[in-house]
Structure formats: structure tokens, C-alpha cells
Design a protein that fits this description.
The complex is a heterodimer. By secondary structure, chain A is an alpha+beta fold. Chain A is 22% helix and 33% strand. Among the domains of chain A are: 133 residues, Probable tRNA modification gtpase trme, domain 1 (Gyrase A, domain 2), CATH 3.30.1360; 87 residues, Elongation Factor Tu (Ef-tu), domain 3, CATH 2.40.30. In chain A, β15 and β16 form a beta hairpin. In chain B, the strands form two sheets. Chain B has a six-stranded antiparallel sheet. By secondary structure, chain B is an alpha+beta fold. Classes of the chains: A alpha+beta, B alpha+beta.
Chain lengths: 372, 125
């Protein structure tokens, strides 16, 4: 996304340049798309060891009310997810919806004592903040945390690295958060990420971010990873990219994200767009998000038309590319509900040619989260 | 051996008699990153100077490769189908895309020689 005005830089900008990164504009920031290792190598390193990602462009918010439940209840008016039932240290995936049930942004919420922490997408963080400021009720308040960087360490050896530097992190499981002192630096970490691997996302003051990143990069398992591999990793993990796979014009039901909406919220409603989603649960939806495995070697990129055998358009690819772990192309997109069953065949219209593909279950690469 | 000429779109062409071998430059492969797929033209196809001749895809994106000169496709480097990374490893050599039967030698006149192309790449930073 091209932003107007000068590009912003994260606290790690100079370190990225020093590490030889190729910097590109992304969501209004100048960020590393890859380091000299290249996207393929960075992808494979993350799947084999541990990759360090600068995701400081993402929005970090703190929401407070008279207590946690009041803050969570205020947020629940804007999100269909169940945040009130979170116990201290628990984390949950969610999204803001609009009146049409469309997704305004997807996000992560963590209960940090009586505080509700939220991480949102970079491109949406200003509208999200305005939305929260305008709509939080009952005295709940939102505060952005621009003075904090966000680093993700992902991969099968990520936990070994963090446990070495912060032994108390060993007891954390997938989708939990805790205040940690990592290599002597106070931070807030959650055991989560965007690659399908075990790992942590760590909020650390900008003033100590470079020192923190250097400390992690000094560990033998860790290499810096850019946005290019971040995208191929999340696509293999079947995770949605906001703005492509989920937008204001797709609902959580169509996107296959109903799992993130608890029974209580489905029944009670009480969030923006509830009537639309309740109707979709009752009556079904016209299109669904699916995984697609193209048969040949040609990647089918976002916006590729999906057609049936008679050439009739039945959907569109929303994310597609090469899956380095599989050594072949992968894609996700929306197809007419009648064509969404796993095993079904579709045609991907790439440069005027119909390339056969198959609807498959996602993720393309199994998740390896640390659940217990 | 004959001199190599370059386009502003970072294709190269090497002429030997009336056969022109074409590919993409080291600068182009470096900008693309890891090449994961190459779509080559069909043998016998007539390509026009400046028009799409092939497609090269990196992990991130698909890019068009334009014919640096016009002519009929005599041969394509089908080894790239199974080993697209050859374009990264040896862009000027084993990573060639196609051999064309040169239609109009005068089309070479507007292309850059090695020195001019190097200066052009330097100007892009």
C-alpha cells in the first residue's frame, strides 16, 4: 500500500540497513522486504530454526476501563469475539466489523491484568484508533503505544532462544502473554505469531529495541527475516492478510473465521453487524474462503479469476504465490459456496490460460504451535 | 563472440550471425529475488521488439520479460522450467530465456552497450 507523505521508519531502521536489507514502502513505513539471504532462504530458515521479524509498524493499543471486564465489554460492542471471558494472560484473535458484517481489521487481544492489550494492522491503525476513541463506552479509554517496537521471533527454535534469555517464558503456551525480562530488558511477550510456527511477539520500548534485536540476533539460531518471507510463511499457514483475504466487503462467516466467534456472542449479538452475521449463520453464505493448490508450477497471484470447466467465473484468488516449504504454488481465495468443498476442481485463469487447481484444506503446512 | 546489448527493462541480447540469444540482466535477477517460475514463449512464435515475450516470477511477484528485438523464436531454455533458480545463478549464461531469429538488425541500434547499461543501472539508485 502506498501511503501519501514521507515514509515512517521503525526504531530498527538503521539496523535493517546495516544488515543489508532491501527496504520497501509498506503501509506507510520503510521496511525490509528481505535481507541478503533472500526470501526463499529466510522462509526456510524460519521453518527450520528461528527468524526475527520487525513488526513495529503494527498498532499497539492499551484499553482500560473501570476494570478488565468493563474494557472488554466496551470492545465487544465493536468486535463479535468473546474477550470478556479471557483470564489474565490469555490471548485471543478477533476483528472489528462494520454494519454490513464486513471486517474493518483483524487483531489480537491479550488480557494483561486489568488492561486489554490490542495489536492491529499497520495500515488500519489510525482508523482503528479513531473507531475505538469514538465508540468505546462507559468510560473505557484507548491509548496507542507509539513508543514501543514489536518484534516477532518465530520458528521451531524460537522458544529455546527466549527460554535461554528469560527462563520464566518456558511455562507460556500458545496464545498467552506475560511481562518478561528478556536479557535484562523489560518487555511484554505473547506466545503467538503469523507463520504457523511456535514463537513470540515481543513489545519492547523503542529506546531499547536495537539492543534487544542485536541480543536476539547474536543467538546462533536467529536470523533476520523480511516482509517477503513473512507473507509466504503466513500464506502456507493459511492465515489471512487483511486488505487481501479479508476486507470491509468480506464477513467472518464468508472468510471461514466463525471459529473466532464464541457461541455466547453469536446468540447475544450486541456488536456492529450482528444482524448480518446471524442471518449468514442461519441461511448460509454465497461465497467462502478456500485453499487452492494449482496443479502446475505457475503461481496464481491475487486477483486471478477462478472459473469452472465451462469458463464461468466462480471466484477470485485473494493471496497466491509460491510456497517454499512445498516447493510449489499455493493460493487462497473465495469461490461460490457450491464449489467450496475440499477436493473440488477449479480453473485458475492465469494470463488468459486456464490452469487446473484443486480446493484443499488449509493450512498448507501444518501449524506447530506450543499448545501445552 | 558478439557484443551484448541491453534494454532499459533489463533484458540482454547477444547476436551471433542472425541468431539472437536473450535473457534478463544480473541487475534484473537481483531486483526480482529468488526466481521460482519462468514462462517461456512457444518455439515458432514471432515476437515483436518491446512486447511481452516471457514471464518470470519470484516468490513475491510476476514480471513480464519484453523482447529486446523482434524475431521468430527458434529455441527456448526449457531447463528453466525445472530449475528456475538458474536465472539467479547465471543470468548472462545458463539462465538465457530464448534464441530468436533476428528479423531486423537495425533494432539493435537503440539498445545500450555494456558501459551505457552499467551507467543506467547506477543511475537507478
Amino acid at each position: 500500500m502506498e501511503a501519501s507523505g514521507p515514509l515512517k521508519r521503525t526504531a530498527l531502521y538503521d539496523l535493517h540497513v546495516e544488515l543489508g536489507a532491501k527496504m520497501v514502502p509498506f503501509a506507510g513505513y520503510e521496511l525490509p522486504v528481505n535481507y541478503p539471504q533472500g526470501i526463499l532462504g529466510e522462509h526456510q530458515h524460519t521453518r527450520a530454526a528461528a527468524g526475527l521479524f520487525d513488526v513495529s509498524h503494527m498498532g499497539q493499543f492499551r484499553i482500560t476501563g473501570s476494570n478488565y471486564d468493563a474494557a472488554a465489554a466496551a470492545v465487544e460492542r465493536l468486535c463479535p469475539n468473546d474477550f470478556r471471558s479471557l483470564t489474565p494472560g490469555q490471548q485471543r484473535y478477533g476483528f472489528f466489523t462494520n454494519e454490513r458484517g464486513g471486517i474493518l481489521d483483524d487483531l489480537m487481544v491479550t488480557r494483561d491484568g486489568e488492561v486489554l492489550r490490542m495489536v492491529v494492522n499497520a495500515a488500519c491503525k489510525e482508523p482503528d484508533l479513531d473507531h475505538l476513541k469514538a465508540n468505546l463506552k462507559d468510560g473505557s479509554k484507548v491509548e496507542a503505544l507509539p513508543d514501543f517496537a514489536l518484534l516477532a521471533i518465530q520458528g521451531p527454535k524460537a522458544a529455546a532462544v527466549i527460554v535461554r534469555l528469560a527462563p520464566e517464558s518456558a511455562k507460556m503456551t500458545f496464545m498467552t502473554g506475560a511481562a518478561l525480562k528478556i536479557a535484562g530488558i523489560d518487555c511484554y511477550a505473547t506466545r503467538s505469531g503469523y507463520t504457523g510456527e511456535d514463537g513470540f511477539e515481543i513489545s519492547v520500548p523503542n529506546a531499547r529495541a536495537v539492543e534487544f534485536a542485536r541480543r536476539l540476533l547474536a543467538e546462533p539460531e536467529v536470523k533476520p527475516i523480511g516482509l517477503g518471507a513473512r507473507d509466504s510463511l503466513r500464506l502456507e499457514a493459511g492465515l489471512c492478510l487483511y486488505g487481501s483475504d479479508i476486507t470491509e466487503r468480506t464477513t467472518p462467516v464468508e472468510a471461514g473465521l466463525s471459529w473466532a466467534i464464541a457461541e455466547r456472542r453469536r446468540k447475544e449479538g450486541g456488536f456492529i453487524g450482528a444482524a448480518v452475521l446471524q442471518k449468514q449463520w442461519a441461511d448460509g453464505v454465497a461465497k467462502k474462503r478456500v485453499g487452492i493448490l494449482p496443479e502446475g508450477k505457475a503461481p496464481a497471484r491475487a486477483h486471478t479469476e477462478i472459473a469452472d470447466d465451462s469458463g464461468r467465473e466462480i471466484g477470485e484468488v485473494t493471496s497466491g504465490g509460491f510456497g517454499p516449504s512445498l516447493g510449489k504454488p499455493i493460493a487462497m481465495g473465495y469461490v461460490a459456496t457450491g464449489r467450496a468443498a475440499v477436493g473440488g476442481t477449479v480453473n485458475l485463469m492465469v494470463r488468459g490460460k486456464a490452469l487446473p487447481g484443486r480446493v484443499v484444506k488449509m493450512p498448507f503446512v501444518p501449524h506447530r504451535y506450543h499448545r501445552n | 563472440m558478439s557484443a551484448i546489448r541491453y534494454t532499459k527493462e533489463h533484458e540482454w541480447v547477444k547476436v551471433d550471425g542472425d541468431t539472437a540469444t536473450v535473457g534478463i540482466s544480473p541487475y534484473a535477477q537481483e531486483q526480482l529475488g529468488d526466481v521460482v517460475f519462468v514462462e517461456l514463449p512457444e518455439v515458432g512464435k514471432k515476437v515483436e521488439k518491446g512486447k511481452e515475450m516471457a514471464v518470470v516470477e519470484s516468490v513475491k511477484a510476476a514480471s513480464e520479460v519484453y523482447a529486446p528485438i523482434g524475431g521468430e523464436v527458434l529455441e527456448v531454455n526449457s531447463a528453466l522450467t525445472d530449475a528456475p533458480a538458474t536465472v539467479n545463478e547465471d543470468a548472462m549464461g545458463k539462465g538465457w530465456f530464448a534464441k530468436l531469429k533476428l528479423a531486423n538488425k537495425a533494432e539493435l541500434d537503440g539498445l545500450m552497450d555494456e558501459a551505457a547499461y552499467k551507467a543506467y543501472c547506477d543511475s537507478l539508485h
